[in-house]
Amino acid sequence: MPNSTPVNDIMTIVHEDGGVIIEDFLTEGQVRALNSDIDVAIGAIDPGAKYDDSFMIDFHGRNTKRLTRMFETSETFRTEVLDLDLFHALGDAVFLEESGTFWMTTAQVIEIGPGNSAQPLHRDLENWPLFVTLGPSGPEAGINFLTALTDFTEENGATRIIPGSHTWPDFEDRGTPEMTVPVEMKAGSAALYLGKTVHGGGENRTKNQYRRAMSIALQASYLTPEEPWPFLVDVEDVRPLPERVQSILGFRSQYPKGSPGLYNVDFADLADHLKLTSSGG
Asked: Is this structure's pTM higher than 0.70?
């Protein structure tokens, strides 16, 4: 769907299929700038997992690079991507009514290199085991904007998704590779999919192509994120940012549905303690 599609129409498809491709989620200029921002940093990373665990070695990929801490690495990410209207509008559409506020669990670049095997199929909500037990009736734990920084093709490792898997009654069932479809899309497009949807990085069958994506994941703010942003980001770098960006980074108190507020200081909003203005300036 084009990025001009009304949010309700986008969410209709997401609820039906478990995900949707949003064309031109980023502009060509933003894609160029992001790639320029991260080229040196990702070039310095060795491929493969940082864990001595056979499952994680396969999960992270033997010829896959993962660059985290995007806030520090890319000015484009800090000042443009994190404040995209569509990004926040879709976060609101998923979380506000059901769960309340939301924040960013991780933002990382995932670059799949030639010869890398397909990633084991999984659901992102497996980070929080309770949601596996709750199955399709549980609230949305998280969503992912998997944004292409290079073209995604079936040959170079396009992420594979099982449409409809977000409705399966047993979330222990992750399906089989034969049930998946490749998410082929142009650089700048984003695959928005639910934490309930089965997916996995594809096999890169090329000899010299690198499939580069930026995964930006949001989650209900009553859950612990993957990356502890307030310990990685200086508050002075956050001070000039808009309020909604400060909030998803964890520099403001969170308000899950039915809660008077979490992440408070002396029962007052964290932003007051940090002396962040309401405008973000």
From this structure: yes
